[in-house]
User: Which sequence fits this backbone?
């Protein structure tokens, strides 16, 4: 199913509200997984848009599996993000105002394999070595996460 793709057939590129989820995946060393996108030279979190009938947890798990081939078992709700900071204009002109639910998971299985139509690379980073070329829609999320990690 491709809810957003079908919706775009009717409304073109005009702005929409898009619900979705992403996951901050932590490995046993406290490193976090970032996904290097193909549509821009940006790193981001694995995640994406919700499909009809899905829960946010199902969306998060499906997107992680589709993008990086990992199965997230347990998810911990981190925060919900919306507003101007999560506005995004895709290279094809489609505009969205994201409502993004972010989860944290250190309970996953599988071996990282990047789905090549959406990503160039995926790897774990130390929180002090996060790449500078981050997706604009996760800058505030990672800022909150880094603050959270420094407090823990």
Assistant:
């Amino acid at each position: 199913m491709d809810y957003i793709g079908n919706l775009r057939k009717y409304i073109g590129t005009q702005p929409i509200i898009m619900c979705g989820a992403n996951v901050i995946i932590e490995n046993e060393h406290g490193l976090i997984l970032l996904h290097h996108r193909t549509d821009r030279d940006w790193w981001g979190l694995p995640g994406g848009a919700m499909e009809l009938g899905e829960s946010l947890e199902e969306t998060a798990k499906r997107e992680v599996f589709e993008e990086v081939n990992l199965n997230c078992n347990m998810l911990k709700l981190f925060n919900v993000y919306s507003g101007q900071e999560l506005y995004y204009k895709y290279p094809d002109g489609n505009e969205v105002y994201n409502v993004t639910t972010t989860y944290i998971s250190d309970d996953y299985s599988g071996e990282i394999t990047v789905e090549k139509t959406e990503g160039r690379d995926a790897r774990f980073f130390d929180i002090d070595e996060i790449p500078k070329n981050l997706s604009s829609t996760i800058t505030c999320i990672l800022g909150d996460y880094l603050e959270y990690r420094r407090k823990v």
